[in-house]
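Here is the promised in-class demo. Please do not try to memorize the tokens; focus on the logic of going from shape to residues.
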């Protein structure tokens, strides 16, 4: 689940009355500060202007601009896809709708615990836990070629407010993706996964370096300055045999 859903109920209340000011009046100090920061965020404004479902789209756009991880014809899985902003970017970049008839057509599968509004060019698997073996089997069934070229993850667990515990929970989700990778990621493929920096980050990095030939740490400018979120970009997946 993407962190775009944080305080989603507050946003929904504001949208129902079509203005921010009345919504702010009856909120606690923390809620007031979150909403004020959200509506003043330049990336939130850009996402509305460019019709992206969430500001997180600009994190992926920035990463792709600098590292060229997406191109027409790729098959991709987007884990923690709700509300679908990353899927929007990927659909455009891999030409999943066939909008460019001269370019190869890609494929996008989005997976999340939450319900996801339909998106042309993407196949969504909602109410699905990526760590569940049944979900993993369903993913393989939905992939046209059985495997993908790139695994994307903007997943985040429901925050407890205990930083170290939340960090460990997200690291565990990333390890679940690595367990899934031998079954769905082509040799030479790419993985981009979000984590919250903490004491176990080096364990995830070590595992990625065992499984991929190139691993780098990225913090896009679109990440909030106060956020602990960082991304590992791992490229050139090593051949693995599965049973």
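The designed amino acids, position by position:
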């Amino acid at each position: 689940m993407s962190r775009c859903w944080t305080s989603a109920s507050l946003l929904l209340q504001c949208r129902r009355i079509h203005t921010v000011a009345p919504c702010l009046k009856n909120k606690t100090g923390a809620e007031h500060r979150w909403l004020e920061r959200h509506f003043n965020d330049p990336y939130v404004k850009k996402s509305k202007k460019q019709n992206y479902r969430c500001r997180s789209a600009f994190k992926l756009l920035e990463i792709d601009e600098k590292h060229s991880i997406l191109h027409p014809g790729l098959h991709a899985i987007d884990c923690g896809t709700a509300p679908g902003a990353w899927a929007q970017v990927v659909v455009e970049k891999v030409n999943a709708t066939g909008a460019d008839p001269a370019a190869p057509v890609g494929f996008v599968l989005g997976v999340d615990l939450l319900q996801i509004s339909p998106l042309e060019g993407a196949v969504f698997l909602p109410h699905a836990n990526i760590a569940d073996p049944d979900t993993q089997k369903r993913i393989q069934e939905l992939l046209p070629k059985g495997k993908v070229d790139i695994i994307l993850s903007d997943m985040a667990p429901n925050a407890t407010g205990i930083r170290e515990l939340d960090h460990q929970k997200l690291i565990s989700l990333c390890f679940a993706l690595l367990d899934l990778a031998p079954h769905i990621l082509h040799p030479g493929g790419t993985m981009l996964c979000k984590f919250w920096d903490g004491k176990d980050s080096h364990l995830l990095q070590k595992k990625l370096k065992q499984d991929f030939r190139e691993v780098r740490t990225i913090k896009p400018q679109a990440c909030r300055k106060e956020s602990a979120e960082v991304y590992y970009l791992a490229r050139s997946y090593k051949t693995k045999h599965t049973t």
